[in-house]
Q: What sequence folds into this?
């Protein structure tokens, strides 16, 4: 039995295609609302149906343009709160600013915490998200957080490819736990690319060495997010130089900014498999980029939250 009244799912402008897939899984229509900008660049939101005491889920990843996506969600939450929604769950498949989760330089912000405060202060009662850049971001919220993972979906896809003599490779030491979990599901060994950043905030990296045996193996590079693709491509080059048979890449969030797609097409990476937490437009899709929808996963989580069921049991082996 549902703990709240009727379930309502709404979507901002960040990823309406994903939201459509979620409500299709749930077997219900997407909630009717407006979210647009006035000529003065101010965002306006209005719900076109009664949400009083309803269990409201607002789907909005923090994808490009990130700041607009964040602000739109905050206004959606405020509008739902003022319309007397029974419970408001912010569904943020991709939590932008997740990389800024600590002070790693003097006089810099912790923006991931700031965004958490904004979402909470706006009136969200819960957060549903996917593969945070750092697990401790959950602790930035004073509301319940359900963090889903795309790992089983990615692992299933890679298992079906039956890659010969596979080894899972963490793009950096910080991502070793995520890569290890994938390696366990694929029954494959783990290797790690050790690197250090150079050039401050420019995003450039310098590879140091590869920890683990990759010679004669098919390497599967694993990371939570691919932005410019520089780390993945550089790691793939180092793996091939170390004797790898071939390289594949997997991630949850495919930002693919700038010339990332071109960079991948010129690299040794045979395929990049990702999910649709962020919209991947047609111009960024080719035979090398494979996108798997996480709409059924989000839909099942929403169903379980609405009915007071365990979300964690979704990932029990």
A:
């Amino acid at each position: 039995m549902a703990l709240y009244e009727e379930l309502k799912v709404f979507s901002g402008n960040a990823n309406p295609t994903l939201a459509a897939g979620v409500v299709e899984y749930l077997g219900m229509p997407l909630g009717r609302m407006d979210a647009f900008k006035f000529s003065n660049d101010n965002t306006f939101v209005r719900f076109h149906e009664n949400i009083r005491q309803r269990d409201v889920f607002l789907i909005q990843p923090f994808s490009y343009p990130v700041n607009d996506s964040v602000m739109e969600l905050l206004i959606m939450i405020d509008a739902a709160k003022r319309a007397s929604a029974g419970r408001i769950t912010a569904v943020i498949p991709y939590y932008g600013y997740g990389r800024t989760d600590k002070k790693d330089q003097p006089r810099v912000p912790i923006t991931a915490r700031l965004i958490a405060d904004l979402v909470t202060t706006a009136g969200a009662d819960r957060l549903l998200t996917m593969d945070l850049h750092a697990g401790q971001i959950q602790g930035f919220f004073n509301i319940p957080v359900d963090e889903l993972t795309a790992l089983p979906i990615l692992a299933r896809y890679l298992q079906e490819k039956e890659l010969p003599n596979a080894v899972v490779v963490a793009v950096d030491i910080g991502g070793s736990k995520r890569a290890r979990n994938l390696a366990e599901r694929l029954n494959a060994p783990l290797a790690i690319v050790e690197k250090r950043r150079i050039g401050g905030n420019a995003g450039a990296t310098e590879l140091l060495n590869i920890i683990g045996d990759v010679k004669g193996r098919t390497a599967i590079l694993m990371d939570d997010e691919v932005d410019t693709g520089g780390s993945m491509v550089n790691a793939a080059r180092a793996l091939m130089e170390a004797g790898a048979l071939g390289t594949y890449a997997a991630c949850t969030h495919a930002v693919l900014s700038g010339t990332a797609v071109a960079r991948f097409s010129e690299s040794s990476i045979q395929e990049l498999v990702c999910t649709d937490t962020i919209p991947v437009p047609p111009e960024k899709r080719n035979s090398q980029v494979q996108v798997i929808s996480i709409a059924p996963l989000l839909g099942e989580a929403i169903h379980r939250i609405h009915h007071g069921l365990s979300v964690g049991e979704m990932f029990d082996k």
Notes: Residues 34 and 46 are 5 Å apart (CA to CA). The chain is about 30% helix and 25% strand. The first strand starts at residue 7 and ends at 11. The mean pLDDT is 94.
